[in-house]
Amino acid sequence: MDFTKKFTKSAAASLSVISNTTLVILKIIVGLLSGSVSILSEAMHSGMDLIASLIAFISVRISSRPPDKTHPYGHGKIENLTAAIEALLLLAVVFFIIQEAVKKIITPEPLHQTELAIAVMLFSMTANIIVSRILYRVAKREDSIALEGNALHLKTDVYTSAGIALGLILIYFTNWYILDPIIAIATALLILRETIKLLGHALNPLLDSKLTEEEEQRIVAVIEQFRPRIHNYHDLKTRRSGAQRYIEFHLELDPTLSIQEFEEISNQIEHNIDQVLNQQVLTTIHAETPVPCDKLGIKEISNKEK
After folding, report:
1. What's the pLDDT tens digit per position in 187-203?
2. CB under 8 Å to 27, separation ≥6 — which residues?
């Protein structure tokens, strides 16, 4: 049984806020006690995660509001905007970590309370594994880019916590203190890679980019099922706003069909698109009926006459 089904978007975002608050406090305390730049950089990383969690918590509440007079297309893009903000915050973290690590490489310093530091990193890793999996499942179910971005933050925390814990263990047995800033830089580069992915995913819907090729192929397949009652289709346009998909196209129907039959076909196409995409979809179909040339008083030109 998937216990994450009990989590709403708001509940998942709240869990992330609580988890990150706890981890930030622990990492700051242990980082100051041990003098480890990798732990302090990880504390800064978790601090950004906390801000991201708060942003995600607010955005999922706003994005769930229904359309109104000011926002007739809903509030879904707030999730993309907040995900982009989260990515920019992560870029600031990367800069800070590298800056502090370079200082430690130039002047290495011994660490203190290494055992406690290792324990906190292992605890952080375990907590983030649990919370990030919950967030990813809820994000997938609810199609929430804000929760997905938040889960990505925690996922990178899992990797960085594991790497830092391993480095601290090596330092404990070898006294190679230069490993601490080197691990911090490796952590920063890992965060940078994930940040670039998140930024691209967040910005595309803000620019009204079309749906994925796979989604558009599913839409076309639905339309093609209705031949020969439809002659053709054109001007297919798609975009996404948060979890909401918008689809628009022109449909050329058989002119012998009645208005009621036009409506029935359009409604069935909309229903089938909802089914194949399995997401929130708003489909707008512009029905057209090709008029024969003889009814317009125009002689049809054959290939021989061209």
Report:
1. 788 778 877 877 777 77
2. 39, 40, 42, 43, 46, 120, 124
The string of pLDDT tens digits covering residues 120-152 is 889 988 998 998 888 888 888 877 777 777 787
Query: Token digits for 109?
Result: 């310093």
* Predicted structure pTM score: 0.54
Minimal CA–CA distance to 48: which of 157, 137, 144, 138?
157
Query: Which residues touch 203 (CB under 8 Å, ≥6 apart)?
Result: 80, 84
3-state secondary structure of 226: coil
Decide: helix, strand or coil at residue 216: helix
9-34 vs 145-174: helix crossing angle, rounded to 10: 20
Answer yes or no: are the C-beta atoms of 231 and 250 closer than 8 Å: no
Q: Do residues 247 and 219 make contact, with C-beta atoms less than 8 angstroms apart?
A: yes
Q: Which residues contact 108 (CB under 8 A, 6 or more apart)?
A: 177, 178, 180, 181
